[in-house]
Write a structure and sequence with these properties.
The protein is an alpha+beta fold and about 160 residues long. The protein contains 3 helices and 5 strands, in the order αααβββββ. Helix 2 packs across helix 3.
C-alpha cells in the first residue's frame, strides 16, 4: 500500500515546520516550512507529480531556502559602545590596583571592588601597585607599576 501525499499534506507539513520554528527558533525550520509550502503549491498545480519527485523537490528547495534565508536574514553585528560589557576581566585592562597578597612563583591575589582576583605576573611583595595588562581566563595578568602612585585607581 502506497501512501499518497497530496498538496494538503505538504501544507500541513509546512505549518508544522513553521510551528516548530516558533517553539524552537533556529531560523532553520522556517525555511523548510516555506519549501514545503512551495511543494504543496506546485502539487496543487501539477497533481500528477510522483512522490519521489516531490521529495527531491522538497530537498532541493529546502537547501536553497535555508541558504538564501540565512544569507539574507543573517543577524547583523552592531558595534557596541561598551565592547567589554560582559567581559568583566577585560574591563580592568590598563587599570592599576594594589596587591593584597604577594605574587609568589607567578601567582598572587588582588582586590578589585568587592571581588578577589588571581593575579599572574612577576614576583612582587604585598602592597605593590600593579597594572592589569591582559586577562587569562579568570586571571588578571599584571605588571608592577614603576612609578608608584599615591592612590591607585580602584573599583
Amino acid at each position: 500500500m502506497m501512501i499518497e501525499f497530496d498538496f494538503w499534506g505538504w501544507l500541513i507539513l509546512a505549518v508544522l515546520l513553521i510551528a516548530i520554528e516558533i517553539l524552537a527558533p533556529a531560523s532553520f525550520f522556517l525555511w523548510m516550512g516555506i519549501a514545503a509550502a512551495i511543494v504543496g503549491g506546485i502539487l496543487f498545480l501539477l497533481p500528477a507529480l510522483d512522490w519521489p519527485i516531490q521529495i527531491g523537490l522538497f530537498a532541493v528547495l529546502s537547501v536553497i531556502a535555508v541558504f538564501i534565508g540565512r544569507r539574507i536574514f543573517r543577524p547583523s553585528r552592531q558595534e557596541s559602545d561598551h565592547p567589554t560589557l560582559n567581559q568583566r576581566g577585560a574591563q580592568y585592562i590598563g587599570r592599576q590596583f594594589t596587591l593584597e597578597a604577594p605574587i609568589v612563583n607567578g601567582v598572587g591575589w588582588l582586590h578589585v571592588g568587592d571581588s578577589r582576583w588571581r593575579a599572574l605576573g612577576a614576583d612582587a611583595p604585598v602592597g605593590t601597585v600593579v597594572r592589569v595588562v591582559a586577562v587569562d581566563s579568570t586571571n588578571l595578568v599584571v605588571q608592577p607599576v614603576i612609578e608608584a602612585t599615591e592612590h591607585p585607581q580602584e573599583v
